[in-house]
Design a protein that fits this description.
- By secondary structure, this protein is mostly helical.
- It has one domain.
- Helices cover 73% and strands 0% of the residues.
- Helix 2 packs across helix 5.
- Keywords: Membrane, Transmembrane, Transmembrane helix.
Length: 141
């Protein structure tokens, strides 16, 4: 068992896989295939963090809040990568001419990392609350 697995309750590949659950929304959103407020969008926004919380409750690792924050930060990396790779699909030529593209892209990376981490913080707080309220035997263990 690695140090990270002992501290977070999951191996790094599992943490990355959990974060990857949120990638479909990034891709569909940047390709313009999701409407804000649609049922599909709401599902793709809420289900991945709910899965993160459920996984932490099931595993009963030592640091549920930190674990979900790490998952959220990894999601932020995926979010940044997705936005960069799909930049021209999301922003057709001529969009955002007020600032150089490099400045906009850098801002998008920072925004993505912050957003992912904040999703992890909020979801981690929910996980910690439920971790304390739901006895281990009721969480599937």
């Amino acid at each position: 068992m690695s140090r990270g697995e002992r501290a977070l309750g999951f191996s790094w590949p599992v943490l990355v896989a959990l974060a990857a659950l949120a990638v479909p929304r990034v891709v569909l959103h940047d390709l313009g295939m999701l409407e804000a407020g649609s049922f599909a969008n709401v599902l793709l926004v809420l289900v991945p963090p709910a899965c993160w919380v459920a996984a932490v409750l099931w595993r009963r690792g030592p640091r549920p809040f930190a674990t979900v924050v790490v998952i959220g930060a990894i999601y932020g990396v995926f979010l940044a990568l997705g936005h960069q790779l799909l930049w021209h699909a999301a922003f057709p030529a001529g969009a955002g001419d007020a600032l150089p593209e490099g400045v906009l892209r850098a801002g998008a990376v920072i925004s993505s990392l912050v957003t992912g981490t904040l999703v992890g913080v909020v979801s981690g707080a929910v996980a910690l609350l439920l971790y304390r309220l739901v006895p281990a035997d009721r969480a599937g263990r």
